[in-house]
Amino acid sequence: MSEYLAIVVFICIAAVISIVLGILPMFFMPSKSDSEKLSAYECGFNPLSSARKSFDIKFYLVSILFIIFDLEIIFLFPWGVSLPQIGYSGFLSMMTFLTILTIGFIYEWCKGALEWET
C-alpha cells in the first residue's frame, strides 16, 4: 500500500486545487450583466431567448466531424507508444485506418461540409 501513497497525495492535491479554483471565482466575479455577456455567442442565438428554436444542421455536422477526428488522435497515441511491440502488421492496420479517415475527410471537404455559409 505504501507504493500508492504518492498517487493518493496527488489525487488529494488535485481535488483541493479543483475545489478552490471552482469556488474562488464565485467571490470575485462581477454580478452585473454587461452587453458582451448578453450578446449572441458562437451559435448566433440570443442567450436569453427560447430554447425551442431550431438551428442549422451545420452545427451538428461540425461537432460530429470534430468528434471523429478527435477519436482519431485518441487512437494514435497508444498506437505510437506500442508500435515497436506490434510491428509491421500494426503499422499497416493503422495506415489503413488513417487512409479510410482521410478519404472520409476529403469526401466531406468536397461536399462542402466544412464551408461555413450563414
TrEMBL record:
InterPro entries: NAD(P)H_OxRDtase_bac/plastid (IPR023043), NADH_UbQ/plastoQ_OxRdtase_su3 (IPR000440), NDAH_ubi_oxred_su3_sf (IPR038430). The chain crosses the membrane at residues 6-28, 59-80, 86-107. GO terms for cellular component: NADH dehydrogenase complex; plasma membrane. Its EC number is 7.1.1.-. Keywords: Cell membrane, Membrane, NAD, Quinone, Translocase, Transmembrane, Transmembrane helix, Transport, Ubiquinone. It is an enzyme of class 7 (translocase). One of its GO terms (molecular function) is NADH dehydrogenase (ubiquinone) activity. Its main location: membrane. It is found in: Cell membrane; Membrane. It catalyses: a quinone + NADH + 5 H(+)(in) = a quinol + NAD(+) + 4 H(+)(out). The keyword Ion transport does not apply. Belongs to the complex I subunit 3 family. NDH-1 is composed of 14 different subunits. Subunits NuoA, H, J, K, L, M, N constitute the membrane sector of the complex. NDH-1 shuttles electrons from NADH, via FMN and iron-sulfur (Fe-S) centers, to quinones in the respiratory chain. The immediate electron acceptor for the enzyme in this species is believed to be ubiquinone. Couples the redox reaction to proton translocation (for every two electrons transferred, four hydrogen ions are translocated across the cytoplasmic membrane), and thus conserves the redox energy in a proton gradient. HAMAP family: NDH1_NuoA. This is NADH-quinone oxidoreductase subunit A. It comes from Wolbachia pipientis. The lineage of its organism: Bacteria, Pseudomonadati, Pseudomonadota, Alphaproteobacteria, Rickettsiales. The gene is nuoA.
